[in-house]
Write a structure and sequence with these properties.
Length: about 350
């Protein structure tokens, strides 16, 4: 029988470092403990939040109800053949440590996603991705607890509905499923995915291996993004907006240096950082929150800031980008409570 910590301090459990307290915090180490935490919330009709590393959350100062954190990690090899391994990874596993472990084991496929903070359990929620690779490229299936039907269920890749920073867990049924295990297929031979501009420039002239890509990504990310331990942040705060090609062409006519990439047929993805920067926000500071001076897509907490201050700033940026470019920016992190 596990007992929750009451009025638990979540300040160190969210990468913005916002002072936040949970009514009840459960650290669960097994499926049985997870079910106990769910039952605790359901019997008392309390709100329920699953938290991983808190690196994609904007937490208010008080979180009513039950917050659950899965603390067991590690992986096991389910299948192995000449060319690949199938791993099953526990939800509480730290993502970056997994990436480093598999690179050390000589397996390829995750190295471009080094240094993304957070847990394996959260990775499918927004189909994490970086430097030309997304989780879905390596994903096979997952196990989750369905709070509505009260059973453990399996999801194949197509059932997850992965899209750009999206999945059914984020947009169709947020809060319904608690992901407990994720299965990934990795290659035994190195598969090179280094077409991404800044990555290919960095690797120019070097011998390219999974390890050198991993090291390059770590170095590039450390030079661009603030470490949440030094300056609270959640990485990119807004998704890159996807707009019809015609709208992109109109914007380009007025702003020839606009940064945009082909998305899917008939659509372009605009660099949200460019829009925010050119609307004049880069380095802007208000009170205890602001826009990171080196990367306009990153909002930061200078210390003692609050979720409310940050969301006020985010609204002002959204309004200004809408006014200047007619483009809607959508925040990437989830605000809780909403
Ligand atoms: C410096 C920095 C850089 C970043 N760079 C990137 C990047 O390059 N690419 C990228 O995609 N993201 C990036 N992010 C965002 C973040 O790292 C990812 O979204 C990550 O997957 C969040 O993991 P987490 O464990 O911290 O999730 P949390 O922030 O704790 O939770 C995020 C959401 O997932 C839900 N959730 C968490 N665990 C589970 C579970 N087991 N089952 C069901 N739902 C769950 C939560 O309820 C919440 O809605 C970055 C963040 C930071 C701070």
């Amino acid at each position: 029988m596990i007992t929750p910590v009451e009025n638990a301090d979540l300040t160190a459990l969210n990468s913005f470092g916002f002072a936040s307290r949970a009514q009840y915090l459960f650290d669960v180490a097994s499926d049985a403990e997870l079910l106990e935490a769910v039952a605790y919330a359901d019997e008392r009709q309390l709100p329920f939040l699953v938290i991983g590393g808190g690196s994609n959350l904007v937490l208010d100062e008080y979180i009513p109800g039950v917050v659950v954190r899965q603390i067991s990690g590690g992986y096991r090899v389910l299948e192995e053949d000449e060319g690949s391994v199938l791993l099953e990874v526990a939800a509480g596993q730290n993502w970056h440590q997994l990436v480093e472990q598999v690179v050390d084991a000589g397996w390829s496929g995750l190295e471009n996603m080094a240094l993304i903070p957070g847990t394996v359990g959260a990775a499918p929620v927004q189909n994490i991705g970086a430097y030309g690779v997304e989780l879905k490229d390596r994903f096979v299936s997952l196990t989750a607890y369905d709070r509505e039907k009260q059973v453990f269920v399996e999801f194949s890749a197509s059932q997850c509905g992965f899209g750009y920073r999206n999945s059914v867990f984020k947009s169709v049924a947020p809060g319904r499923y608690i992901i407990t295990r994720v299965r990934l297929r990795l290659n035994k031979q190195f598969v090179q995915k280094t077409g991404y501009g800044v990555l290919s420039q960095y690797l120019n002239g070097q011998e390219v291996t999974a390890r050198s890509v991993f090291d390059a990504i770590v170095a590039i990310r450390q030079s661009k993004l603030p470490d949440p331990r030094d300056l609270g942040n959640a990485g990119s705060f807004f998704e890159n907006p996807v707009v019809p090609v015609e709208q992109c062409e109109q914007l380009r006519a007025a702003h020839p240096d606009l940064v945009a990439y082909p998305e899917r047929d008939g659509f372009m993805k605009l660099a949200a950082g460019w829009l925010i920067d050119h609307a004049g926000w880069k380095g802007y500071r208000t009170g205890r929150v602001g826009v990171y001076e080196k990367q306009a897509l990153v909002l930061v907490n200078y210390g003692q800031g609050s979720a409310r201050e940050l969301m006020d700033l985010a609204s002002k940026i959204q309004a200004s980008v809408m006014e200047k470019y007619g483009v809607a920016l959508v925040p990437e992190p989830r605000c809780y409570p909403q």
